[in-house]
Every structure is written in C-alpha cells, then in structure tokens.
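Entry for the shared binder. Reason: the reviewer on the internal report wants the predicted structure included alongside the sequence.
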Amino acid sequence: MFKVEDLGAVVRITLQRAPVNAISTEFIAGFMQVLDGLASKTDLSVIHLRSDQKAFCAGADLAQVQSCFAIEGGADVMRQNITHFHALFDRLEALPCVTLAEIGGSALGGGFELALACDLRMASSSAKLGLPEAKLGLIPGAGGTQRLTRLCGPGIAARIILGCDVVDGATACQLGMVQWAVAPEKLAQEAEALAQRIASQSAPALQVAKRCIAQVGTLAPSGFSAELDGIHSLVSTVEAQTRIQAFLAPRN
C-alpha cells in the first residue's frame, strides 16, 4: 500500500492502495509501520507524501463504515476505528521533520484530514478538496473540524464543512486550505523541488521553527473528543446508514 523512497534528507512516501487510497484500519496500521521504520533516520528533514492513484486519498473506507451498521455495538466500534485515524494524524503532525502533501487528485473527507495533518500542502489546480461528510449524515471526525478551523478560521471552515463545498485546488489556495496550487502537469516537479529546497535548509532550525509555529493555536483535546462523541452518536442513526448505503449502492 506504500512505496517508500529514501532520497537522503527527503523521504518520499507514495500511497498505493487502489483505487483511491481509502483509509482502512489496515491502511492506518501500514502507515504507522512506515513511520516506525523512519523513526531512527537521523538525517530526515522532509517527508513528501503523494499518491500514484487517481485520488490523493478518498477518505475513510465507507465499506468498513457500513460494516459497523450490522453488528451490535457498531457505534462503539466506529468510534474506536476513528481513534486510529486520530493517532496517525496526530503522529504526523507531531513529527519533528517537515511534512509535505502533494495533492494531485481528490482529497475528500479523511483524505483531506490526512493532508491537514501535514505542515505543507501543494495541490494541483484541478484537484478536488473538501470535507463533505454531512452529505452522508456524519462529520469530519478525524480532526477536520479542528485543524481546518485553526488553519482558515471559522468562516471558511463553516463554508467547507457546513456547506459541504468541494473546491478545486486553485480555490483551496485562495481560501488558505493549501499553500500552493500549480498546473497538474507541473505538480510532481514543483513538489519535488519544494521538498529538496526545504531539505537544503538547516534541519535543527526547521525543527525549532516548526515547534514554535505549533505553539500558536494549539488544538484543544476537548475539540477532538467532541468529534469522537459526534461520530459515535451519528453512525448509529438511520439517517447516516441510509445515506451511506445509497452512496455505496451500484450506479446504474
């Protein structure tokens, strides 16, 4: 599910779970193993995250979500599953190195929450980004309500989360959801150049700067707890089950 390339101070991780890098418990466990393997790398300055699928990451594996509907205590299972998302995204955010998400295709729901856990985001101008979980009777419960609000403010967060707006990369850049938007054909080259440029800087200085930036607008644990409680209450509703089943139904 992952291709890891050690380029010296830069490590490139390519998501490879066909067809859209849906995030399952196995995906999260695999990602954690990749990070475990990098923990002892002393010269690491940048993790460059990208995809070789048609989407950067389509978010939570909805088939796995749907499986919770049929079991007793499914809401509790769903809540536990989402804590694994939180663990991965919190770990990404806390890494001492710089993390860069190269978003060449759709980054929706949990896929955009994954990108939000990175320090930097460069998107194709035509990529689609958003947190449309309300359409499925859910919320962006893996840090999305918190990280997007911290990044862009409550007004933009409300537009994206409550309005279920899915925007292209160019608009996402204007809104502050990503820092760069480039032409699709230039994305890989530009992202690689950015990763190398950052890696050429002083690694200790980057680490200290990243820690200082993180002190501004530190996220409160109560916000993440509210997300988990919200997911727990929503996933057991007929509303969410009906909407997710309709979304997963074969298209004619």
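Summary line for the report: The chain has one domain: 2-184+219-248.
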